[in-house]
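__Protein archive entry__

___
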Amino acid sequence: MPGCLRNFVAVIALAVSAALATAAHAEKKYDPGASDTEIKIGNIMPYSGPASSYGVIGKTEAAYFNMINAQGGINGRKITFISYDDAYSPPKAIEQARKLVESDEVLLIFQSLGTPSNSAMMKYMNAKKVPQLFVASGATKFGDPRNFPWTMGFQPNYQSEGRIYAKYIREHYPDSKIAVFWQNDDAGRDQFKGLKDGLGDKIDMIIADKSYEVSDPSIDSQIVALHDSGADIFFSWAAPKGSAQAIRKVGELGWKPKFFLANTATTIASVLKPAGLEYSKGIISTAYVKDPTDPRWKDDPGVQKWRDFMDKYYPDGDKANANNAYAYVESQAMVQVLKQCGDNLTRENVMKQAANLKNFASDMLLPGITINTSPDDYFPIEQMQLMRFNGESWELFGDVITGEVGHARSH
């Protein structure tokens, strides 16, 4: 018996030491871009070129990670944020993605901006099995975990947005005629598809549409043609510069349609002011992020926290530019994913944690809107609220609406 007991104790001792060794081994796991002291994050932004007004997003993100580092980092690790310019050019985006993955050896690429750029990088990122996380585009293709498991979107997808507008129009303006101005790329096509799908049997309300290229110097001829169609509802699905030109031209023509504007082009600083605030009054769009210029958030603790961050870490940043609020929300979600990773900083675990966000709320998301993902749901935000521009600021109205592809229901 004592012999058996000795053997038993020896087996237990072996099992315990094996378990401890496994625990020690499981404690810290790293892929390129992660170590005991550092997490390297790559980013690609149009700091130059036709979509350069979005460049502030990269600057806000850099400032946010500086703040996190000043507070001690994430689980003791400092973030090294490497951001390159692709001038909104797909070939340049691929070149920069290769540089980040192969030369800089980042753990992941976060928040690269634009549908064309991300479309160009997508196959490469998935072949390399490097996370292409929280893509700054609402194109529906960036939420396809079955075919592209290493790519995840973030903001409400464009088809959802189109459906939300369609639902509103069907309820309030069922006898109107619609003219659509759209960007000739996946983003514009997605938005247009959402509108058409949402209109359903009322699709013949759309009587005219014109597309444009982001690089077009002028879009006047398209707007004149849409004006001449006799439509009383006008949609502008365009990047900030194109949207500003469209708002101005509609105003100059003395055309007074019910005007719907893409959510990605609602910043007062870079779209509505250049277009002319007098021409922007009455425009309807959607929101999911608190607008810092909206008086209703004057004393909101979340907005105050964002203002304090801007004052200290990005004092040159424009507090009237909603892009700086959007970037803050994205950065908070990125930090949450890295916190959830703990000491397992492999690319596989980054994607696993990104697909396991549960009711995550950011200081700057509208009340009632939360971030949720799962292994088969790569659309973190699927709720929005309608808003109208009053000449000075955006005013929210109606309920928070879920515009998931397949249905649009009030929440």
Observations:
- The chain has a mean pLDDT of 92.
